[in-house]
Amino acid sequence: MQTDTDKRYAIVIDTFKCFDCKACMVACKVENNVPDGYWRNWVRHTGGLQGKRTHFQPGQCMQCESPSCVAACPVDATYKRETDGLVVIDPDKCIGCANCVSACPYGARYRNPTTRLADKCDFCMHRLKRGEIPACVETCPTQARTFGDLNDPESKVSQLLQSEKLVQIVNPMVNTKPMIYYVKGTEPADWTVQPTLPGNVHMPLDFWSKS
Amino acid sequence: MASKINSPISRRNFMKISGAAAAGAALGGRSQVLHAMAADKAAQLSDGERKIFSACDMCFNKCGIIARVDKSGNIRKLDPNPNYLKSRGMLCARGNAGVAQLYDPDRLKHPLLRQGERGEGKWRQISWDEALDLAAEKLKTIGEKYTRCGFMFMAGTDLQSTFVHRFAEVYGSYNVLSHESNCLISRNRAFLDTFGIVPIPDTLNCKYIIMPGANRFEALVTPDSMDIVTAMQNGAKLVVLDPRYTKTAALASEWHAIRPGTDMAFFLAVMHVLINEKLYDEKFVAEMTFGFEKLRDHVQQYSPQWAEQECEIAANDIVRMARELAAAAPAAMVYPGRRSSDYEDSTQIRRSYAIVNALLGNWDRTGGMMLPHKIKVGTIPYDAPFYDNNPDDRVDAERAKMMFDEEGSFKHTRDAVIEGKPYPIKGWFTYKTNPMQTGANRNKTIEMINKLDFMITVDITMSDTAWMADLVLPAPSYLEREDPVSSFQGSSACSGVTIRNPIVPAMYESRPLFDIVKALAQRLELGEYFDFTIKDYRAAQLKKLPEVAAAIEKEGVYNEPGVEPGRHKGKPFRTVSQKIELFNQRYPDKGIDPMPVYRAPKKAPSGHFRLVVGRNAYITQSSSTNNVILHQLQPENSLWIHPKAARQLGISYGDRVEVASPVGKGQLAARVTDEIRSDTVYMDSGFGALSKGLSNVYGKGASNAEIIEDYADEVSGNMAMHETFVTVKKIQAARS
What we know:
Chain A is an alpha+beta fold. Chain A has helices spanning 23-31, 68-72, 99-103, 125-129, 135-139, 156-163, and strands at residues 9-13, 41-46, 55-60, 78-80, 87-89, 110-111, 118-119, 145-149, 166-167, 180-183, 196-197, 201-202. Chain A starts with 8 loop residues before the first strand and ends in a 9-residue tail after the last strand. In chain B, a hairpin with a 5-residue loop joins β3 (64-69) and β4 (75-80). In chain B, the strands form eight sheets. A seven-stranded mixed beta sheet of chain B has the order 6-5-18-17-16-7-8. A six-stranded mixed beta sheet of chain B has the order 24-26-25-30-23-27.
């Protein structure tokens, strides 16, 4: 999988700042017409009463550099854009087989009940096109998400990558090289799902060698 | 049950780079496009969308929004206005869901006249002419028969509510209620009676915040909610006292599951430590306060060891926190909070917060209690006519020891209407407020309504209050109307001015409140008092403020950043002593303790729990729970109950339970959780609606308003909503 795209969009999330108000979820839902009962993003939490602080952790499609969903798509409808590395879905090609849904280790995809096609976060590609940042990033009361281009050393995300201890949340079975980073020490890291291929076959570790 | 958590690490570097909101700082970085847009407020985007500034109305905060309107004139989305200092350039879940309020199929569409019994839900659609003629006739006949004060008015927090007050005054009734006596008037009373003014907490620059009861990360107040997060990133410590593990408690440096109703004991003990260890600001107290010696003697009875028995917070923790507060002072505070409608002595409880702040010497200092500041806007003045047959006073007068006449007391007014004493009230006009769901003891509200000859409700949906009315008039939402200018206090860090313009035309047959009262005034020969348009009114408001008008035009808001410390220097306090009154000199004459005297909360009878109420960040009480998007985040409320208590009652997670008090009951699912004390239960407000016009929440969950008894704060007449004990029993096992 190529990673030398012109831009490498990423989000850095500081869950220290998240108080689970769900503004990001509603902003996304309105911005992207996400159908009732479905969400493209979420807030998970960990910790709690046992003498620990709770961390509320926002998440969404990780725009992986080695996306299992792209590899799982039989018709190349899901692909990684060369211009900016975004993992997107071509609705004209998608056949709604949902292989990508089960192949995602983050549970970030769903099948739209109306269109019957796969859907997920695309970092608000249409907003980026007109010079705006993703709706979830813009609306956040505490600016828990920072968005930017990792190929631009001046971008905030590049600087955060240099200055902060950041981690990625990775399924032990498949490292899809996610483009969402979390500030270390504030992350629940145990919520990835087991990615599967059709027939409920767990993906082998060498899954990536053929893609 | 106290749980001590390590202080958050300070990560200033992250702050610097991520550009989190800081005092007065431009919200740079994420607004390039919008700066370009500011030059032309209706900037056209490449895909044909236009952008229009406005202010949110999904709660009272009035945060800055930019509506994106598509080519066919529909609002596509509401984005935050990055120029808007008060809201720190953000928009919460409810703000984002505003579009669903606008396009809600449950919107009121036409004037409706009741046909069947009250609350039966049988309506006849009538024309506006018929509706206004009828309303005017009832105002006239009831006013003639029972005096003008026999018609009462109630208006919620809204930019047009000022016209309800204006109408009521020229019509001749001084029985006008706001929502506030179901919310925060005892807090205002307490701080006013201490400082002579209600100060603004400078949370952004505070280093040590004790937050009793308030839940600022869920019950959002802008910008406090965001500023406290920023303050914590800068190393501030947040201590939360709450019987419930709220999200604020979850993120706090320290959480103590205080026994409900004992906050005053905690703060009296804090005073004991501050005074006896001489940790208070001696110079400040000597120069600026009144009654210190009396307070010193008074608090000797309230040792930390004594307080531990009351609040169930260890004495050594109380001592430590008092010392930590003092060490951080003056950038240390007891956060005043907002809703204070909890106990019968809620003013006195808040007095104890105010007095600790005074001892810390944080008044008018960075990180403390700051002098409020609002930009003064003009008005179109009027001299209301005098009606000489009117009674001498409000109907609820004398029922509380020190009520605010301009807010009234919903609880006491309701009692007076039911009793018909001291004089009868037979008409009610409500605008955008829902006391059927926000005032405790719903059955009593129904009883009051049944005493009325005629009730008019103006709202955007069929709220439970509208459901009980005789005449229901549809109003446009905040996205469809022209509102007067609003001047607001953002926080210690900013004040501002904003307006609303219609982003889309008023839908259906809806008419703004202003048009309704203007039409009624004309029919009642009071037209001269409304002989203007909203545009005229706004022009009068901004006549002397051309720079404000220009900024609103350009950026959607006028900001005045940075309320500086020291602005009050050399000025007297507006109290009898002209000092901060630790000992209030007006109180003894009114039969009020001049210093807070602790009275232990009532003990729960065996098998009973204390019910406490609140909400989360995606609920604005009953005004948002029916919203089709927010409803997906929370379809109904649940009863928080501790596992120990649940086990004794045979209740498992998800079981259907009945919660009952002497005045009402409700059914909902049990949320068995150790995030609440075992002697306390909790449920969110805004559910269990009676109105079938609220299709998402009709009959869903239980209504706090139905179950809570209507106690009141003795001083202010604020509703006291945490004085109710309930029983809980299992009705049905959870579906497995």
